[in-house]
């Protein structure tokens, strides 16, 4: 292949057309309900072990031809896939909003679909040239990266399209084929995105196996799959690692986090009688808010526990309440909303239980913590909790929802110790008017990424991954490409 068509193939032109392309009939599928309204959306197909076996067989055959294509050809096809996603962006965002619950606006559904395009284009254009290791006249050694084979990707329900792209795009770029097993909670969204991509790609490169958890457990042990990429809980990650060990599969695991943010004493002005100081404080508070409440808190690398010094504790709390109270929550298809429901009943129950334990312990509710249990959707109000002990479950366990504990500290050493004491290490942040002071603190935090004056602001060019029980392996950028390939040294 050297010349691609100048126009895209026919693509779904509406939400209804897109939904019809990926839905199953009622007698063959599983009902899918809108978490904001409880309304039936459609039925998702339910695949069995036989579908997985057939997909792997097809993928192994297709991979040989795909690997023989030039890097330029693979890059061009990925860029066309990004163009196809852009052409169907609005129907994809609508389906995502209906199935996952996240609003169209804010850093939510339209944002996620846009991210799919950006990550695909970056995976296609990031250079990874052969490296000359030694050239001294006697030894000539080079290092290049070759395809692994078939990548088994297992995705979550919180960012179902975007995280799937993190797995798909670099894998395809490096000459692999992909078997993708989406979450049962957001199957239609992933099927729709892959349907659009597959209108551009050759057959057999990308297959979605929409099975239940029993089928998901077969992916790590399948002898025809060469690498596993998984984003999800630490408990499931352990099981995947155990299953993959039998065939020595390569692994990239992006697991649970309980990200800490440390506010330094200079990040907020103390003179709240000055309107300019209040405005500046609220600008910082808005950054903290979105670090914690992006996707209504349902993000692995969201800010989940905030450490604030005694000197500005009340100021920070007041500012966060002002900002949070202005953020509308509701049905995602309503353009004004930027916060939505939790995606499922189980997650609602987890958040509700952790907030109740905090309240029962004597912590102060600054905002929220009073859900309407009779509402049609899984809405949990934006919740801010102060005066909470660092050992409270809302601090030590990942809430994965719209509830932020704000913990008081007396010394910076105390805050750093508290931030590091949990066995997680995905993301973290430091907030300060002094960037160098913030970097000094950041260097002491145990996490895969530490942001300064932001949180969770990932970039497709910058590697991302966790430490401790938050997983291992890197995604994004040049390092992400290397992790979906095998190194090959030629010496001589």
From TrEMBL:
Keyword line: Oxidoreductase
Transmembrane residue ranges: none
Active-site residues, Swiss-Prot/TrEMBL: 254
Keyword Chaperone appears in the UniProt entry: no
Recorded superkingdom: Bacteria
Domain Aldehyde dehydrogenase: 31-484
GO molecular function, one term: oxidoreductase activity, acting on the aldehyde or oxo group of donors, NAD or NADP as acceptor
PANTHER family (UniProt xref): ALDEHYDE DEHYDROGENASE-RELATED
Protein family according to the UniProt entry: Belongs to the aldehyde dehydrogenase family.
Protein's UniProt name: Putative phenylacetaldehyde dehydrogenase
Native species: Corynebacterium glyciniphilum AJ 3170
Lineage: Bacteria, Bacillati, Actinomycetota, Actinomycetes, Mycobacteriales
């Amino acid at each position: 292949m050297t010349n691609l068509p100048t126009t895209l193939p026919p693509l779904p032109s509406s939400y209804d057309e897109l939904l019809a392309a990926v839905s199953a009939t009622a007698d063959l599928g599983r009902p899918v309900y809108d978490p904001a309204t409880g309304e039936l959306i459609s039925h998702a197909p339910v695949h069995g072990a036989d579908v997985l076996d057939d997909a792997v067989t097809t993928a192994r055959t297709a991979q040989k031809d795909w690997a023989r294509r030039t890097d330029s050809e693979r890059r061009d096809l990925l860029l066309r896939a990004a163009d196809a996603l852009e052409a169907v962006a609005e129907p994809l965002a609508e389906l995502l909003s209906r199935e996952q619950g996240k609003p169209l606006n804010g850093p939510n559904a339209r944002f996620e679909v846009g991210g799919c395009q950006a990550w695909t284009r970056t995976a296609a254009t990031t250079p990874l040239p052969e490296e000359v290791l030694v050239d001294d006249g006697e030894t000539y050694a080079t290092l290049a990266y070759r395809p692994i084979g078939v990548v088994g990707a297992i995705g979550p329900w919180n960012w179902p399209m975007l995280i799937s792209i993190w797995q798909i795009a670099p894998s395809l770029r490096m000459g692999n084929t992909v078997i993708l097993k989406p979450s049962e909670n957001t199957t239609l969204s992933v099927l729709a995105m892959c349907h659009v991509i597959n209108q551009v790609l050759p057959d057999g490169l990308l297959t979605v196996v929409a099975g239940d958890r029993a089928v998901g457990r077969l992916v790590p042990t399948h002898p025809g799959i060469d690498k596993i990429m998984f984003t999800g809980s630490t408990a499931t990650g352990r099981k995947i690692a155990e299953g993959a060990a039998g065939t020595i599969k390569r692994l990239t695991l992006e697991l649970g986090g309980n990200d800490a943010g440390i506010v330094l004493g200079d990040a907020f002005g103390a003179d709240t009688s000055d309107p300019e100081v209040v405005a500046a404080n609220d600008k910082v508070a808005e950054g903290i808010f979105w670090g914690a409440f992006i996707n209504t808190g349902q993000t692995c690398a969201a800010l989940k526990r905030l450490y604030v010094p005694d000197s500005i504790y009340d100021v920070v709390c007041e500012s966060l309440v002002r900002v949070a109270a202005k953020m509308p929550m509701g049905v995602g298809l309503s353009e004004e909303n930027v916060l939505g429901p939790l995606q499922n009943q189980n997650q609602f129950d987890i958040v509700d239980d952790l907030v109740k334990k905090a309240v029962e312990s004597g912590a102060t509710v600054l905002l929220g913590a009073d859900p309407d249990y009779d509402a049609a959707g899984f809405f949990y109000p934006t919740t801010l909790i102060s005066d909470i002990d660092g050992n409270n479950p809302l601090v030590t366990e990942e809430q994965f929802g719209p509830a932020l504990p704000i913990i008081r500290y007396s010394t910076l050493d105390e805050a750093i110790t508290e931030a590091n004491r949990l066995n997680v290490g995905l993301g973290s942040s430091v907030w300060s008017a002094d960037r160098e002071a913030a970097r000094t603190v950041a260097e002491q935090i145990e996490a895969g990424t530490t942001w300064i004056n932001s949180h969770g602001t990932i970039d497709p060019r910058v590697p991302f991954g966790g430490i401790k029980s938050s997983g291992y392996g890197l995604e994004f950028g040049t390092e992400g490409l290397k992790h979906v390939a095998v190194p090959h040294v030629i010496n001589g």
